[in-house]
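Problem: given the chain below (356 residues), write out its structure.
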Amino acid sequence: MSGVLQRRLGGTGVEYTARVSESRLALVHFTVTAEPDAPGFGEVDVAALQVELTEAVRTWEDRLLSQPDAADVAPLLPGVPEAYKAVVEPQHALADLHRIAALTGPGAFDVRLYQSATAPAALERRFTLYLAGAPATLTAVLPLLQQLGVDVLDERPSEFVRPDGLRCWLYDFGLRVDAGTTAAIAERSDDAIESGFCRAFSAAWRGDAESDGFSALVLRAGLPWREVAVLRAYAQYARQVGSLYGPQYMADTLLAYPAVARALLALFRARFDPEVPARAEAEDAALAAVRELIDAVTGLDADRILRGYLAMITATLRTNWFRNRPFLSFKLDPAQVPGMPAPRPRFEIFVYSPRV
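Solution.
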């Protein structure tokens, strides 16, 4: 309060006396020392000053409970650590507490990607991981974030204890994306970016998806993590049949040409999505689009890798991808797969799973 009065009234110093009685109220008398030309000797907006003084005496809990929908998280306030209150504004903490309250039990987790008010609009964001029952190590979390194509700038951990005794951990990370990814996501909405990134991290955290160089296609190409798994599976198949290029090199090529990656998935969908009407026309259009993009690619290795993807997709006869199984299978015609060693079988079924 003394700081507010000194700043608003232009004072050079503040003295105060307090009177406390048996009443629930206390009386504090402030004396502000100021120069003769200080703002306090002119017109003072008493109402605005009163608002500032009221805000100054409110606690962190008071400010949080004044937010809409705060009543549901009021029971959690005794378990909020002081270190967390010191760095997180109440309006932001409300979202954190709602997510912590929603954790169902040990092993449950939630994630959140958001734009920090103090960070550059496109370059930096913050990512929060909420865990129940047991903490996480940086060794477990950082590789998943880095493979998604972001640099981790800082980390703020906090431990909460819920009224039911469940211990929960919150890890808040500062993230930065590179210039290429920043340009790639510029046309996407914040909701689309958050949804794709959080679903991809959650899949990797559960073990439903591998974490490798292909993961960065979620941000760079705007692909859902399950579509990225298709490209990863084809890379594993190409390696199995003797490709000269490793999966990481193939992932780097797709990252360099994200439009081709999207076009390859569009062709995959046109060929196999059971809901596609006029399949022949859709397939012809998708095939022409991906060929046009590959024709514009510079670099012999990139051309070979991307045309290899095109050949493997056109050689695929059937897939279970649209049935949302935990594993992915392709039925292929090996005669159409470039580089397939002899003897070539009539048909081949390739099965991919992140757990194998």
